[in-house]
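thread from #wetlab-drylab

HS: before we spend reagent money on co-crystallization trials with zinc ion, can we at least see a predicted complex? here's what I'd submit
DV: go for it
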Amino acid sequence: MSDIDRPALTKAALMYVHYCEEAGCKEWGGWGNAPSPAAATRWWCFEHFPHKSYEQEQALRRKLEAAEHRA
Ligand SMILES: [Zn+2]
């Protein structure tokens, strides 16, 4: 038995590697959204995630403002 005998495991791991799809963004895409169960899920970081709720948007703004004040 060798590592070459296990291609399925390698492919499964690759499915979980998804970064934010915003051009130029290198953040991890931890926020996914699929328009329908049949469609492929798209991934963004929290900042670029286009489907945030109003509360999530406010929380992000407070976080960004706090970061600006520290700089
Ligand atoms: Zn991003």
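DV: The radius of gyration is 17 Å.
HS: ok that's useful, forwarding to the group
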